[in-house]
Amino acid sequence: MTRQNTTGHGNNAVEVRGLVKHFGDTKAVDGIDLDVREGTVMGVLGPNGAGKTTLVRILSTLLLPDSGKATVAGYDVVRQPRQLRRTMGLTGQYASVDEKLAGWENLYMIGRLLDFSRDGARKRADEMLERFSLTDAAKKPVMQYSGGMRRRLDLAASLIGHPKVLYLDEPTTGLDPRTRNEVWEEVKRIVSEGNTVLLTTQYMEEAEQLATELTVIDQGKIIAEGNVPELKAKVGGRTLEIRPSDTGELNRMVGALAQAGLDGLAGATADEDKGVVTVPIISDEQLTAVVGLLGERGFAISDIATHLPSLDEVFLAITGQKATHQDDEETKLKEVAA
Ligand SMILES: Nc1ncnc2c1ncn2[C@@H]1O[C@H](COP(=O)(O)OP(=O)(O)O)[C@@H](O)[C@H]1O
Ligand SMILES: [Mg+2]
């Protein structure tokens, strides 16, 4: 089933049909179909062990599939690996640069490996360091870099050869929130320059920030696809938690919201244990309206927070059952949800 190109937004940069890769009894990739249109960002969302890295490794010619077909920028991953490697860039889950070498040396070496002339590789290394604000750290060994600097260098490394398609495999897993934001900004810039990106992530929030289309996978299979609002709608969007200064006001607050007649606000509930009113939020306008309304009615509020649905909630909504995780993922997902 090839998706018809009815929107006129160009061709598919990535086309995957019936892709399978098993490791013994483990069905890492178990019949995946995927289209990524040129110039868009496809987010592949799934927990640890879902098959994301295996998919990326097949699409970057590092691993042969058992069956199925995949083309990237028109090149077959099995039959035209050398041509394909010249048109793609890969930023792995774990930084692929050499720790002992300086930032500049890493980029220069990659340029040389990609057949740039000495001069060309030098120029490109300078250019990429400048672009990723690493010029001052050019001569420092990478082991002295902060986490954010390393990821920026990793992104720079994957862009040296002007790839048409870029794979970002969990680009922010393990980063603190500030560094994560920094990487997101860089990725947004790369995307705004018209690159095609396939991004894997465990984080709904990351997918929402960066991806135009989403494919949710679990145990090697696609369990949902669509754009971000479509998927969010399935899980009921965000939740707003409002903490009144006086917890005795919880029920009066719920009443005020319910009477306001705003769309969706009938779903407001009081959580006595946490001392908050919980409101499902379907749009930014609604969020603004809720806060405005409570202000007008003279409620004193001590805290407001919005929560995105966690990956677990997405799975629950899509599959009707809890996702099964390995032990370490369980903790990770709880941390993310917290
Ligand atoms: N080289 C391998 N040999 C055996 N099993 C593997 C190998 N690579 C991945 N797996 C298994 O395949 C499944 C999918 O792994 P992976 O693609 O790394 O998932 P993700 O990147 O989504 O965390 C996991 O159960 C993993 O243990
Ligand atoms: Mg992985």
From TrEMBL:
SUPFAM superfamilies per the UniProt record, alphabetical: P-loop containing nucleoside triphosphate hydrolases
Organism: Streptomyces gossypii
Subcellular localization, as worded in the UniProt entry: Cell membrane
Topology relative to the membrane: Peripheral membrane protein
SMART domains, alphabetized: AAA
Gene3D superfamilies the record matches: P-loop containing nucleotide triphosphate hydrolases (3.40.50.300)
Protein name, as recorded: ATP-binding cassette domain-containing protein
Similarity section: Belongs to the ABC transporter superfamily. Drug exporter-1 (DrugE1) (TC 3.A.1.105) family.
Keywords tagged on the record: Antibiotic resistance, ATP-binding, Cell membrane, Membrane, Nucleotide-binding, Translocase, Transport
InterPro entries: AAA+_ATPase (IPR003593), ABC_transporter-like_ATP-bd (IPR003439), ABC_transporter-like_CS (IPR017871), ABC_transporter_ATP-binding (IPR050763), DrrA (IPR005894), P-loop_NTPase (IPR027417)
